[in-house]
Amino acid sequence: MNQSLEGRLSHTPVLPLVQANEPDVAVNIARALVAGGLEVVEVLLRTPEALQCLAAVTRRAPDSIVGAGTVLNEGQAIAAVEAGAQFIVSPGLDESVVGVAQARELPVFPGVSTATEAQRAWNLGLRTVKFFPASNAGGTAMLKALSSVFSDMKFMPTGGVSRSNLAEYLALPCVLACGGSWLTPADAVARGDYNSITELAIEAVKIAGEARP
């Protein structure tokens, strides 16, 4: 699964973040993203209904690969897997969360922002990690510095990534893909304007294609 997921992300290196209070809304967002060419989605565990949303997307948007984001502890990781998560993403590096994913042979992308955290991840056997919060943690300059030491690691910058700097991040060989919430703006979700989400996805795929021809 890890090779399959990373292959998808390498081909279309954008990971949209989905946050919703209702399963139907989450499913509609995921379908809109898939229609725009983004098949890998990260459902954030930031609402009381997040696990129901995750399970609904897994069942009702079968063309998508669905992961759980903002996974903070072992219990959330187990619940996310039981809800159907196909990969796990965390804002920070927690060994118990990594352990849950590794025990189930699921991809896991913990967040790092320093060399110390990257080294801990490397020694846990991880070769792809989230870089968070990307813009506040030094952006592309920090990624260049980290990759000069951890040359066999790939990073997924998230936090402050947008349409305006997506190409800049994707130009770095150490970046597998970029995550971002600009693809699923809250105002569009509130209006039920899923066509605009599809249009943003199409734009992101175009930018990625130009950055990595």
Describe the structure.
It is built from 10 helices and 9 strands. By secondary structure, it is of the alpha/beta class. It has a single domain (2-206), classed as Aldolase class I (TIM Barrel, Alpha-Beta Barrel). It has a 4-stranded parallel β-sheet, with helices on both faces. It has a 3-stranded parallel β-sheet with strand order 6-7-8. It has a two-stranded parallel sheet with strand order 4-5. Helix 6 (115-123) links the parallel strand 6 (111-112) and strand 7. The longest helix is centred in the C-terminal third of the chain and has 18 residues, at 194-211. The radius of gyration is 16 Å and the shape is globular. The model has no long low-confidence stretch (mean pLDDT 97).
Query: Mind summarizing the main beta sheet?
Result: 4 strands, parallel
Oligomer: single chain
- Structural category: alpha/beta
The count of DSSP E runs of length 2 or more, i.e. the number of strands, is 9
Q: What is the molecular shape?
A: globular
CATH architectural category? Alpha-Beta Barrel
CA-atom Rg in angstroms: 16 Å
Mean pLDDT: 97
CATH level 1 class label: Alpha Beta
CATH topology: TIM Barrel
SS element count, helices: 10
How do the strands of the widest beta sheet line up side by side? Answer: 3-2-1-9
List the helices and strands and how they pair.
Elements: H1 2-11, E1 14-18, H2 23-35, E2 40-44, H3 50-60, E3 65-69, H4 74-82, E4 88-89, H5 95-103, E5 108-109, E6 111-112, H6 115-123, E7 128-131, H7 139-149, E8 154-157, H8 166-170, E9 178-180, H9 186-191, H10 194-211
Parallel strand pairs: 1-2, 1-9, 2-3, 4-5, 6-7, 7-8
Helix pairs in contact: 2-3, 2-10, 4-5
